[in-house]
Amino acid sequence: GQQVMQIPQYQHVQEGEDFTTYCNSSTTLSNIQWYKQRPGGHPVFLIQLVKSGEVKKQKRLTFQFGEAKKNSSLHITATQTTDVGTYFCAGTMNRDDKIIFGKGTRLHILP
Amino acid sequence: ETGVTQSPTHLIKTRGQQVTLRCSSQSGHNTVSWYQQALGQGPQFIFQYYREEENGRGNFPPRFSGLQFPNYSSELNVNALELDDSALYLCASSLGWLGTDTQYFGPGTRLTVL
Q1: How do the pLDDT tens digits run along chain A, 111 residues long?
Q2: Deepest in the core among A11, A56, B26, B74, taking most CB within 10 A?
Q3: Residue spans of beta strands (DSSP E) within A26-104
Q4: Closest-CA distance of chain B to residue A9, Å
C-alpha cells in the first residue's frame, strides 16, 4: 500500500546544532505538507510544497521537495529550545485522495 | 489558536459502547477531516467531509461514521468500541480539498476504551 516513511524516528541535538528530517514516499506525490506537534498539543501546519525541486524557507527552517516528488526534507539551522516537538510530513498522492502522514521525527534539544 | 474546537477534551468508555465526538470548524471552511492518532504515531486519516457529504475515506471499518452540518460543525461516531480505538481523535478544517489547502487542527479528544 501507499506509505510515507520518515527518518529518523528520534533526534537529540545540542542547542545551536542543525537538524534534518527526511520523508520518503513509495509513490509520486502531488504535494507534501509539513506539520509540527508540540508535546501534548495538536499538529500545526508549517508549509506545503507542490512543485518538483521546490525549496521554501521560513526563517531558520528550509523545506525541500525532491525532483521526482517522492521525497522531502526539513532542515532547521541553529536549533533553539522552542523547536522541540514532533515534525510530521504528510503526502497526498492525487488531488482529492487521502492524505498520508509519516510517523514523525521527535526532536529533543539538549541545553 | 486555529479557531477549531473539539468536545469533549477527554472521554472514557468501555468495550462495546458507542461514542460521539464533536468538532466545530472555522467559519467558511467547507471541508472537515477526522484523524486517529495513537500514542507515538502520526495521524491516520479516517475520512473527509465536503459540504455535508463524505468524499474520502481511509482504512477504517464502517463502525466509524460521521456527519457534517451546515453550521460548520461535525461529528465522528464510533460504534462497538474496541480497546485499540483508544487514541487522540483530531478534526481538521480547510477551505478546499484535503491535501491542497492548509488544514487547521483542533486540540483533539483523548478517548480511552477500557
Answers
A1: 668 999 999 999 999 999 999 999 988 999 999 999 999 999 999 999 999 999 999 999 999 999 999 999 999 999 999 999 999 999 987 655 678 999 999 999 998
A2: B74
A3: 31-37, 44-49, 55-58, 61-65, 71-76, 85-92, 99-101
A4: 10
